[in-house]
Amino acid sequence: MTAANPDTTGDRGARIIGLQERRLGPTILRTYRTKVDIDDIVPNERQPRLGPKEDEELQRQIEANEGLFEPLLVEPHPDQPGKFRIIDGERRWTNSRILVSQGREQYRQVPVEVTDRTLTDEERLRVWIYIHRQRKEWDAREKEMVAYRLVDLVGRASAANILGISLRDLDKLVEVYELSARFTGLRDQAGAITWARELMGVSKKMLTPSVVDAVISKVNQKRITNSKDLRNLRKILPDPVAREHFLSKDGDLDSAMLRVGPAAKKEEPGLAGDLDAAIASMKALPWTALEGLKDDPEILKKIEDAETLLKNLRKSLSS
Length: 319
Prior knowledge:
Blueprint: E1 20-24, E2 27-37, E3 41-42, H1 56-64, E4 72-76, E5 84-88, H2 90-101, E6 109-115, H3 121-134, H4 140-154, H5 156-163, H6 167-180, H7 192-200, H8 209-220, H9 233-236, H10 240-247, H11 253-257, H12 270-284, H13 287-292, H14 297-318
């Protein structure tokens, strides 16, 4: 297959039709569509997305559609004549290849959209990022990982420019990704970004290296099993006694929370303070207690009286 001449017929008999323009954000590509042998397609060694590409559900979708519904976006390989390098679609290519390796030869011919030239690194990255944003695949884990990879591939300034964010925001994404790499004891390693994001949500003033080390150690030891529990650090760390206990060898989030002293709260005088106290009391009522009060006529009557009183109070204060 010769990618440079869109008016020729390839060596596998695929008829190439004229070029068309495709706009992907600020980048305009000239492409043509055809089919090529799956072994003539090469993955991109500078692919921003990391991690495993195998997906049994995607394989079932390919079989149900009797092939790929969306063609791979590829470019002529700069170093391997007759081969094509993937710009977008490595997961589809990987799972089609698995099916072919299992003897399903009907998936060997893969639909592709071929650019008329090999793209620059920056063009390729811009195109890939634009496509994934349009597909709503730009989740939190993707964003941090891609930011980190872009800095490694093209440097901070170009990475921020490609992503359309400030250097400060880029550095935050990279910091989260680097921190996530330290959470090595998780059952689902893909969730490490979630843990890192929760930890980075704690005030920078309180998030000292010793605190970070303690959190990572306790998570990797499975002494902290829910990332949302890290939010308790916002109460633990300002309290010197609770903080010291958490940092100790035997300390954990639950035991540290028991050592948090009562927060000094400025009570508002008069009606406002009384309403705050009533609201706090109702919020503190456990659901088990509510279950026991269901259909209690005396309680329902008190609630009705309270509703009437609050409505009249609101009316008086609003007029």
